[in-house]
Amino acid sequence: MQTTKGTMEALGLSIPFTLNQKNNDNEKLVIVLPDKEYSTQAPVLFYARRVFWEDNFDVLDFRYAFQELDEDILPVAVNEMIISFLQEHHYTTIHFVSMGLGSKVAAYFLKHQVYPGVHAVWFSPHITDEKVLQVLLNRQNKGLIFFGDDGELVLEEVQVLEEKEHLTVGYASGNDYLDSYWVETSLDVLQSIMKTMQQFIKHGKVELIEDKSEIKVYLTLYGDDFPLEEVTEKLGIEPTRTCKKGDEMVPPHGTYKPAIKRYYPDTSWELDSGYIESTDVEVEFDKLVDKLRSKIFIINELREKYNLKSYIQVVPQLYNGDTPILTVNKKLINFAYRIQAEFIDYDMYIYPFDNTVRFERDGFYFKGRKL
Predict the structure, then answer these.
(1) How many CB atoms lie within 10 A of CB 370?
(2) Considering Cα of 111, then 113, then 117, then 119, what sign does the dihedral take?
(3) Between the chain's N and C termini, which has fewer beta carbons within 10 Å?
(4) InterPro entries attached here (predicted)?
């Protein structure tokens, strides 16, 4: 590995750069172009650089973030620097990674230089700039685009981008890609972005998996307060979830608002199937009953000892117009009666169905055609 630091000059601008090289014969290069207030050392671009480095790319960073620069001159000047650099080297594979202001630099390069094999990863490109938008729409360079899902996008332009075969468009759950009060959520988003980039680097596209309808069924025992460990020991089954009365409810995803706090009203012991790709509720109910039918006596013993209540619930998540089979058979009714369940509940989520298929990875989603 060889690291070179210095400055490049053009049109009166002096821009610091860092070049990390695998070896002198490497033919793959990624050029990293930051936003005005987001440096190449900030999380998204830092790990994007690492992804390319691990795929044997040399990495050229331009470090103009947080400098007072003429944004109209910057794309022209940096492109002169890039061309001079490329003329001194022999790279056959070139990728760009840009964010915000950097998209103007990448767009200028793609418009004015004949490099048909150049691929680009775009973080929040300035699609309100007509020059950037036209390059994205009309140049056939393969591109992977990430937007923050902040409700402020120019929707008409984004929809046109989604229709382009050479582009894949993704949306992070937040204005910033890591805009979450939860560390785990931010890390999930970051990891998903990097895994998606790895696919794009290797294949020039992203293999997206269509959402499939799925079902989760579960039994919940709940009461004022009772020893959860005893329930687990007597049933001989590890619960998938437990909570104690008075504990704070902490949502696993979404924005956390410290000023609004909610607390569990009961202690509960829950056993669920996990989400299973299916639309047949009856089949999944049968599996749950088969697992618990031999435990009816113990459930009733615990119910009487600790004044417990119970309910059975199914959570179907339905995509693409799927219709669930909602049969409740005698086996389930008999089981619910024998444990004196309070109710059998359906908590159903039906997602809009249209010609735009929605794909998800942890923390962000894609819209567009199947790939």
Answers:
(1) 9
(2) negative
(3) N
(4) DUF4279
Torsion sign, CA atoms 188, 189, 190, 191 = positive
Query: Do the beta carbons of residue 204 and residue 142 sit within 8 Å?
Result: yes
Distance CA 343, CA 360 (A): 33
Task: Give yes or no for a contact between 44 and 193, defined as CB atoms under 8 angstroms apart.
Answer: yes
Identify the CA nearest to 316 among candidates 273, 275, 357, 365.
275
Distance CA 26, CA 34 (A): 24
Structure tokens at 351: 């997602």
CB atoms within 10 A of CB 332: 21
Look at residue 350 in the predicted model and tell me its pLDDT: 85
Contact of 329 with 282, CB cutoff 8 Å: yes
Q: Interhelix angle for 74-87 vs 102-112, to 10°?
A: 60
Domains and CATH numbers, the chain: 2-209+359-368 (3.40.50.1820), 214-350 (no CATH)
Closest to 145 measured CA to CA, from 207, 97, 93: 97
Residue 71 CB partners (closer than 8 Å, separation 6+)? 36, 101, 104
Q: Which amino acid is at 326?
A: L
How many other β-carbons are positioned within 10 Å of the β-carbon of residue 265?
12
User: How confident is the model at residue 360, as a pLDDT?
Assistant: 54
Tens of pLDDT, residue by residue over 296-337, are: 999 999 999 999 999 999 999 987 778 888 889 999 999 999
CA 129 distance to own-chain centroid: 26
**Dihedral sign, Cα of residue 291, residue 293, residue 296, residue 297:** negative
The DSSP annotation for 232-279 comes to: HHHHT---SEEE-TTPBP--SSS---TT---B-SSEEEEEE---EE-S
The residue among 215, 210, 209 whose CA lies nearest residue 317 is: 215
